[in-house]
Amino acid sequence: MIRAASPRLGSYAALAALGLLAGLAFGRAELVALAAPFALFVLLGLASSTEPRLRFFFALAADRLVEGEETEAALSVTAAAPVERLDLMLPVSPHLELTPAPAPVAIRLVRGQTRTFPVRVRCARWGAYAPGEVVVRAYDRFGLVYHEGTVDCGVPLRVYPTRDQLHAVVRPRETQVFAGDEVARVKGDGIEFADIRPFAYGDQIRRINWRASARQQKLFVTERHPERNADIVLFLDGFSEVRRGGQGTLDTTVRAAASLADAYLSRRDRVGVITFGGRVSWLLPSMGDRQIYRIVESLLDTEIAQSHVWRRIDLLPPRTLPPRALVIAFSPLTDWRLTEALLDLRGRGFDLAVVEISPLPYADRGSDDPERLAYRLWLLWREAVRFRFARSGVPVVEWREDVPLATVLEEVIAYRRSARPA
Amino acid sequence: MRLATAVLACSLGVGLAAVPALRAERAVDVIAPLAGAGAVAVVLVLTIGVRLLPLPLLLLAAELELHHVLEPFPAAALAAYAGGLLLLGELLAWSLSLRGLERVDRAAVVTQSVFLCAIAAGAAALGAAVLGASALRLTGGLGDAAIGITAAVLLFASISKLARGSPRVPVGE
To answer: pTM (2 decimals)?
Structure first.
């Protein structure tokens, strides 16, 4: 904490000096009588000033929550020495709502006294927080000198994004070698019927299709599609976001990524995450229950890092983008660097789908003609970006906030069903 | 709470301004404007901030001094006025410090009220003591002046020594 002087200290000292000087100069005792209390007040105030000895403790009933949930919290302050007046404020992130609202309070503490302030914390948005930072100002008896500062007794609070239940996900064109829920295009051991063909030397007897063989008077075997897993890479735009008030495209991106990761991992697919932007971060594809926690934890740290540096896809380690992986990109498509990176990925043969988190609800259409013209030009530019993706055979589906993620995925699935693979 | 302290400070300020103005028989046209300015300055402090705190105190002290020069004030009234001035300054500062606070502890209010009463009484007593001491003639004119100057210098040297390094010095958590 910082020791600081109240404005009264200077005022009283100046008044006392003026009064005493005038009293001495003019020989007026009443001026000295008026000034002396101020001088003595300043003297006593400075002499009695001591550093406050306070201990703060902030406790949360739960340190891991999902968006929209509430938990109990309590701020406790203990004074080892008396504090005549202690102003407290508990500033928190705007995404955490405190009940009662975090307004400053003034209290008095005697030696050894502990005061506790219970609050309810509602988590309005996902993220990693550390509530418990307290802004403190402690006055002594005369109040001429105070100690103020910020005491950090924060405890980590992780708020996970809400996840939609998805019944259908975008199916990758290619599968990997491990067993999973995705019916592979290739033929092999599996359940799903693929074709029948004439018996060849080395075929297993149990694969003979007796019905077809009896009809054709010749041995035929049944071929099947194996069930394999797939590699999914969730590619998040870290270059830019469009935000208005408490909502932005990044919030939607993270919620969608968490929902998709959950859905794919439950199908025993390997899922990885890449945040490509001013700060590049990645999580290697993996499967299992632990991976969903890794992904969600990494998503909590997702943020937009402003940067003008040109970034290419070469920056990413090769293992982050396994061959034959399905890359699902989430972006408001407002930064051309991400567009170029995605088209580069497509050029390298990756199976790519783009979910465009629409920035239009957060954008201002403009109030005068030049602004409206700029807005229309921007819309045209966005159309041109979408056209470039479409020309490369990449589905781009616009996602507005009021539409469920499942609907958006259905659009992607429909596009990929009708589009000819490049 | 803030409103109550502000009203109290305003009342005290107006009262302190009114006393010399109402008692004045001569030079009312000089004292009355000073009284008015002092009362306005009290309101200004409450509106603008604590930086203006010396202004009403200075104006009210000037009003009293002018009145005392023209028509001598009783010593007891002078001492009470000194206590009132310090009380006014503290009330104004307290009211301003409550700005933005959502809740104030009742215990803090009670102790602060008691403290304000105590310092007002103490200031009045000190004023009376100073006036009483000034009536003494210890060593004659020049010697008394030297004692007064020495006392003032010692007082401010002590304040300076205590205040040195106080603003914005980190003292740890």
So the answer is: 0.69
